[in-house]
Design brief:
single chain, alpha/beta, Quinone Oxidoreductase, Chain A, domain 1, 7-stranded mixed sheet, 6-stranded parallel sheet, 17 strands, globular
Amino acid sequence: MQVKAAMLRATGAKPPYAASRPLDLDGPVFGEVLVKIGAAGLCHSDLSVIDGSRPRPTPMVLGHEAAGVVAAVGEGVTDFIVGDHVVLVFVPSCGHCIPCATGRPALCEPGARANGAGSLLSGARRVAFAAELVNHHLGVSAFAEFAVVAQESCVKVDKTLPFENAALFGCAVLTGVGAVVNTARVPVGASVAVVGLGGVGLAAVLGAIAAGARQVVAVDLAPAKRQYALRLGVTHAVDASAPDAVQQIKEITSGGAEFCIETAGAVPALELAYAATARGGVTVTAGLPHPDRKLSIQAVSLVAEERTLKGSYIGSCVPRRDLPNFVGLFQAGRLPVDKLLTHRLRLDEINEGFDRLREGVGVRQVVTFA
């Protein structure tokens, strides 16, 4: 079938993307699902592929945060039927490798290999352009009218959930809220600092508030992002560029935040988060800096201060368990994910959307499909 899609031909295009225009199907087979995309979010992980800081094979249809409706299923698919509403998850988990078998599907080994290769979980590619096979982005490739995905990339959701809200659960919410509740395991009454207030960071803010943190300190370079966090309900906001930013956080939290969550994907942000963490506290990083960047910390602090530094990929989530729970919190009014949505785009406006993302304008932008 023919579909309209935004295809990245090569990485490293020069901004503004509105000028350089870097973004211009076979049906499902065994174990695969055809999804009519309802909405797809623009994430920094997509931008990192565009600018070359997250190397991926090209040509590629980007987009990994999305929701839609099942349009067809291949043989062997038993969990989904035509008409189901689904959120797409960017780590397809095989269910059989050691990480999957021990409850850590975010670290699925076949899933990681497929994502790195630009294929579906089976190793196949279902998108083609002018007889040339096109790579999938993280097994999803949602900047298109339709996507063929592995059934393991789908989580069924309530049909009353609007697609533009449902899409955000596939990455921003799983990653941000999951970093708080799964990786950090923030208890009621704890102090939390969130460094980096993009879509994932503000989702972490919402997660910390929902978890019952007594203090939530929002840290970012941009005044507009700090103001946005204050409107979401944080107790304090700190300018990350201030020379005394770490000291401010320590004064607010009486010695350092018990939990610091870094989501900026920049080494200076992670260094700030680690420095602002209390003795005995936990620093969690959910950002993805360039692979060449290195982190330097005072090694003795890990022992002398019983500090913990943890990575969090897709929020250490089990998507089929956690995603419906997070949706339930949203529907109960306790996780207002809809407040993260700042821009709605047409597919042909996607380059301008990535310019805004690069410039730090807005929070979450969503491409919507009629």
